[in-house]
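User: These chains co-purify. Model them together.
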Amino acid sequence: MMATRDIPDFERPLTTVDVVIFTVLDGQLQVLLVRRPDGPEEPFPNAWALPGGFVDVRLDDSLESCARRKLLDKTGVQSPYLEQLGSWGSKSRDPRGWSATHAYFALLPADAVQLKQEEGKFAQWHPVNEPPPGQPLAFDHADILQAALERLRSKVEYTSLPAFLLPEPFTLPQLQKVYEIVLGRPVDKSGFRTRALAAGFLDEQGLLDVGSPRPAMGYRLKDRAAAVYFPRPFSPRSS
Amino acid sequence: MMATRDIPDFERPLTTVDVVIFTVLDGQLQVLLVRRPDGPEEPFPNAWALPGGFVDVRLDDSLESCARRKLLDKTGVQSPYLEQLGSWGSKSRDPRGWSATHAYFALLPADAVQLKQEEGKFAQWHPVNEPPPGQPLAFDHADILQAALERLRSKVEYTSLPAFLLPEPFTLPQLQKVYEIVLGRPVDKSGFRTRALAAGFLDEQGLLDVGSPRPAMGYRLKDRAAAVYFPRPFSPRSS
DNA sequence: CGAATAGTGTCTTTCAGACATTATGCC
DNA sequence: GGCATAATGTCTGAAAGACACTATTCG
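Assistant: Joint model of the four components:
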């Protein structure tokens, strides 16, 4: 390595933040995408992309606050579950120059979201299993989305993450459904209930009538800031 | 969010990469630290710091190749186990300005390292349990080191990561020792052997005499590039 | 009273942890 | 042959998965 003695005089990389925002809507896991602006000088004009953009050193105190700002702008949600996913940086990922993006992923209940339509820019939910129509995602956002999905699916096996996708209060059958949606496979009811309750992240909120024949107990999270880790992962018995 | 239509005209954050390099030496988990340069304009002069520095857009194709370059510079090691840890960015972490660092962590066998002493800059191994003498670590490197330790200790519970800390070939008792060093607790021999062998990441290399009364089977990794995940974590029986 | 969903009980099998035992090589 | 370490065997208890059963509400 050469001089760290001083700030280097060569070009600084571009610094951006992107947020992968998940929710469950219509029984599917969905991700929020925005359309890139049109224009001859724009990278990936009109393509769908993850919400994000440049770090603004005048507005943002930190990477995380930058991510929260973008999240608030797009969804109106103040404090969803938010975790850092990783960073992607190379000289080729953005045609405008050497760029590094810091990716976050967020989980929130669909009903909390007020999609903002500003200046002809559309934010829209897309099922993660159906690629958005038209061109592929802008930049390396397909890679980032893929990584976010893998992280989510892997953590769902042993954490309370899916609870952040539901509006409160929710019932255990509803929560189980979300686990099944994210995992893509059925989950045993009895085992699920035992584990979820034993993990101790739920507070009872009284019976809840959700339209099914028999009302079920409503629950809310004890702590909407942090996920809870189960001692062992869910796993179908390997025969 | 405002204009992503164009590259913003305000200041760009500084972009750096730091590497947390672990090895096992003298029966302890150790981390490689370097001394910050001295000088009136230097941030944290003379303090110990993680090896790292600015991304050089002329030299580095990507964040990872930047990390590998710094690793090679400091240790001479070409391809250790390397994984991204996360990023830390804020306006206050570096007195020189808004800065974002991309942290990686690397595992390597101590004997592979040729510590380079250049221009009076010292790279030196430090046991992770003993804070280095003098001032605290530069920047937020104590936080980063802490995060790396947590990541390592957590992954050791259910992956083959410790194998990357040993020179090949190694024996199972040696490997078990490394697990115990990183975990900070004893591990049952029988269970360890069963799990390690069942995980299928080892290749037999013939008997190895390591000075103990009875020679033990030597092993090497089938794949030095990737860690293997165990189906279930190690865990002492919770009585 | 029947249908549909909520919630509980029970059985079985797996498997990790604990610990005892055997195997091997060296002095 | 004894000692130290390597390697394997055995037992047991905990717990997860599978599935059957009971409970509750509504029409």
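Chain A has two domains: 14-155, 158-221.
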